[in-house]
Amino acid sequence: MIPVASFAGKTVAVFGLGGSGLASCHALKAGGAEVIAADDNAENVAKAAQAGFITADLRSVSWANFAALVLAPGVPLTHPVPHWSVLKAREAGCEVIGDIELFCRERRRHAPDAPFIAITGTNGKSTTTALIAHLTKVAGYDTQMGGNIGTAILSLEPPRMGRVHVIEMSSYQIDLTPSLDPSVGILLNVSEDHIDRHGTIEHYAAVKERLVAGVQDGGTAIVGVDDGFCRDIADRLDRAGKNVVRISVKNPLASGIYVEHGDIVRSSGGARSEVAALGGIGSLRGQHNAQNAACAAAAALAMDISLEVLQNGLRSFPGLAHRMEQVGRRGNVLFVNDSKGTNADATAHALSSFSDIFWIAGGKPKAGGITSLTGFFPRIRKAYLIGEAAQEFSGTLGTQVPHEISQTLDVAVAHAARDAAAAGLTDAVVLLSPACASFDQYRNFEIRGTRFRELVQALPGVKPVV
């Protein structure tokens, strides 16, 4: 845990008592603050009370003595309307911040030069965060990984030299971190997302920009420049005097890092040199993972990690659980768990990565279904449809893709494994990438992916992927 001493002797309101909110309560109390905990969910309030915190309805208490409101990232700050607790704080002239802001203040107080790598983007940030954490561990750093990827930042060990914090940040978290100042900031990409919470894509992009704009003096801002928003952001950072490393997987760069024919290449002043090779690394298959790997490589270079360690780290990266996770192989058939592919855009990355696919799809459907995936249909040998979306997906696939309505994951895995083995292909892939939420049959995508893994590994003759 990271004790938060910057509010010692003061009273702080904490609203939103899930994982990060409760961790904030513990960290503030350990640092000497008095905490008043609140939530709209009575169960969460009860848990905080059981943990020994004062709880209250913040609608009916005086805000005069509150030094700050620490808000959970899931609570609306601006759109569609500010949460009532935010309005109360503003009326009282009380700052509204999040748990990562508390971390940043403690780091500046105690270890301002300790490595802090922050990652954001519309897509790919979890994989990039996990990959950077893996690379820094391979390089010998005491690595603390958290933030949006799972572990609340204040539950990690405190900043110090030799210890690196690798933190995934959503736009909600950036919004609540006004003094965000990583030593290495990464912005992967920007595309339309979370407009309900930011109003417009322009505001959403501006929030994302703050992560790289806040990079501390002497630090490195790494920006993927394959979309227009990020190209403009990189140019603004240049004009502001930041050390900017541009990343592309679509075009060579005169200055920056790009991917060409499966190699990560660095160019500067007309000279180019190979940084690392991605060929044969199954956990980093596909153009989207090439971008993740290039950004991670840029972060490793900013940390002075050697090319040899970088290459070894890339090759030993196991991948993110439930995201293009290779869970087994039987003969020429590879089994891939992409249960985190819960919408068509995410599934497009998976389908683009293979040629002979036995595709397991379905679950609780989302708006638009799979109509945007028609360009990938020639890659699909057969589809196995499960859950509530089965009939809808069947209508979209029509006569273009052979398919069956399997209904359950158990049936789909058995039939896909049988058909893939019988097809006699050199590189057949049984791919779970549902393009749907899991909630019709599973509580979350992790449970769905774990079930897929169990079913595959129970098949006769399946071996781990090495």
Summed up, what is this model?
This protein is of the alpha/beta class. It has 15 helices and 20 strands.
- Strand % is 15-25%
Gyration radius (Cα, Å) is: 23 Å
Tell me the overall shape: globular
Helix and strand composition category: alpha/beta
Helix content: 25-40%
- Strand order across the biggest sheet? 7-8-6-9-10-11-12-13-14
What summary fits the major beta sheet?
A: 9 strands, mixed
Number of strands: 20
- Output the number of helix runs: 15
Chain-averaged pLDDT: 95
Amino-to-carboxy terminus distance: 35 Å
3D architecture notes:
This protein is an alpha/beta fold. 34% of the residues lie in helices and 23% in strands. The strands form three sheets. The chain has a nine-stranded mixed β-sheet, sandwiched between helices. The protein has a six-stranded mixed β-sheet with strand order 15-16-20-17-18-19, sandwiched between helices. A five-stranded parallel β-sheet has the order 3-2-1-4-5, sandwiched between helices. β13 and β14 (271-277) form a beta hairpin. α5 (125-138) packs across α10 (287-302) and α8 (201-213) packs across α9 (228-239). The two termini are 35 Å apart.
